[in-house]
Amino acid sequence: MKVLVAGGAGYIGSHTVKELIKEGFEVVVFDNFSTGREELLAGGKVVRGDLLDKESIQKAFSSEDIEAVLHFASLIEVGESYANPQKYYTHNLTSSLNLLEAMLKAGIKNFIFSSSAAVYGIPQQIPIPESHPLQPINPYGQTKFFIEKVLEDYQRAYGLRFISLRYFNAAGADPEGRLGEMHEPETHLIPNILLSLLGKKKSLELFGTDYPTEDGTAVRDYIHVTDLAKAHVLALKKILSSPESDFINLGTNKGYSVLEVIKKAEEITGKNALYTKKPRRKGDVPVLLASKEKAEQTLGWKLLHSSLEEIIATAWKWHKKQSGF
Q1: Does residue 268 share a domain with residue 146?
Q2: With a threshold of 0.90, does the pTM exceed it?
Q3: Structural domain tally of the chain?
């Protein structure tokens, strides 16, 4: 079966492309390479195009016999979404609507969407179940929330079949060392810690030390990117075998504070991290933890790589390789 992966050259997309190929899917990667990197692709056919250009995505569907689409292409920086909401609403919403329009014209009804825990906003209960109210508190989360509403309407009106996967904190790197995280700028905690330890980042900034948590720093649910990628393959198989659409969390049900992550990184690398304390970032919440029961029960998903030790060790191996160590 041939599937199109929009944004397949990005961090999570490239890991998912690798898993799809491993599972026997024929992959077409659609990417404008504004942030994705072709060297991260483990295979598949590459189609250069932009989801903001309707003609380019429609051309891709007309030239390829696509049966399902996985959509990763998105801007992801919460802080930037506050500073420039127009950019986020344009890129995340318009691009998704263009992709869905092209799918409907081509008669493609199977869709896996890269959503986010940001749709929940400030948690009313921990861990967060899929039934939790959706009250996003930043423009980035709003874009994911709006797209999920679009998917529900498209299912009702056009028979679209979808699974929306709400990620918590993707981290780590391909255990085989082939793929890893290469954002520019890098805003995620673990790579920033490791890049600072390698001398590739001048200073490590710790945002918020006055949260109502045990050590005052924010607590997050970290999931290994390979486990995340495998969940996408399971979701794709699920939607191909059953017409039932769904919303599913992807997390571990376990959280670590920023200081705990820094300490673990120091243990694994044998280096001391120097950091500067900064005020909280707007839009950040104290604790985000996912309920993972639905993913386990619905998809048959199992966490294989998501211990904090393996997450940091695989990321450390990747960043050392990229830095020439």
Answers
A1: no
A2: yes
A3: 2
